[in-house]
Amino acid sequence: MVANTLKLKQRRSRERRERIVAAATRLFGRRGIAQTSLTEVAKLAGVPLPSLYDYFKDKQDLVAAVPEDNYLALYERLTAVANGKQGPRQQLRATFLANLEYIRDNPDWGRVFFLEIWPSAAVGQARIRKAVDRYGLHYVELIRRAVAAGEYTRDLDPYLGMSLLMGSLCHLTAVWLLYRKPYELVDRGTAMFDLTEVSFLRRS
Amino acid sequence: MVANTLKLKQRRSRERRERIVAAATRLFGRRGIAQTSLTEVAKLAGVPLPSLYDYFKDKQDLVAAVPEDNYLALYERLTAVANGKQGPRQQLRATFLANLEYIRDNPDWGRVFFLEIWPSAAVGQARIRKAVDRYGLHYVELIRRAVAAGEYTRDLDPYLGMSLLMGSLCHLTAVWLLYRKPYELVDRGTAMFDLTEVSFLRRS
DNA sequence: GACAATTTTCGAAGAATATTCGAATTTAAT
DNA sequence: ATTAAATTCGAATATTCTTCGAAAATTGTC
Hints:
Two copies of one chain form a homodimer. Helix content of chain A is 75%, strand content 0%. Chain A is mainly α.
């Protein structure tokens, strides 16, 4: 247990940091980043305002911490799900749907990531971009394998396929979040994946 | 000529407003909204800071004006292009590509709209949402007609089809803008449209 | 063309928010 | 027990957004 071997002081400090990120996720996710002041974040986290700066360089840095703190859990879930399936095609499908499930279960995080971070200038920062790239490359790799296995047509450009899937994912999520969840995200995502995949398949 | 019949004072006022929006489009588009201060906008527009408030309620209001000032030109272009084609399928394709051309030719606007406005909380404002909805419905309508004409399969849900196209469009544009235009937008958009459309077609 | 009414402009001040500084406190190490 | 190190946070500063109202410019009227 890492947490237990940490010195008392360090552990407390870490818990504090986590409380701040949790508060930020919630507030940024509900009201948007621009509409949330650090004063509010500090209040919800139960720490004095200047203490935020003991953990984060500035507001932007706190914003970046929100998705970062979720990547680990997300990737674990995605790989766990994918490993349970056989064949790249099934793995791709399972990954896509697990991704939507994660968003459904963590809408605040989803909103910060898909609506505020990923599209915004934040991606210009190397730190965030790296994570986003990794995210996309995971899909590229699965598509590539499905092509190699002969499940998808040889004509398929894996990057184009990835753009299609990521684009659908983002758009679906954005509409779901912005229009107050007018449909069941995973169900609709399933329909969308199956529709998209038609164009990936080998012409018989 | 509306502009010429306007009283001198009103005309100057309108030109001023246009200069402000132009400055805002440029700065918001290059640095992002959060990283751009109104002081900078005012300076680039050549007006004193408080004068911004003679035209816009607050910063958010100025942000909203950026896409609004472009809709007219965009819609004109889209409908002109679509009307030159026959059959809903060709019209849809032409619309999609003309849309990409407009983005390519107005990247600052594209960035403000696709990266800052559309995904952000701003869509929560009725005024902006209305415009966005209209945008999407245009695609829905064209798809619907293509289905009715028997060009697309009857199984196709027009809304799902729209999500797919809009998702692709957004993602393609976002990557193009954020990764410093690594490909020719319209060419890649063409490949993407054709790939997506495979899943719309009637199974023979 | 002079005068009043109206609209437009913008300097000065205020409010909200982000950020820094460093001294006080707490914990860890010797 | 004493020193060193890390952590916390009150007080002060900097930046940015926003308001107010008086000055200036324009328009309408006689």
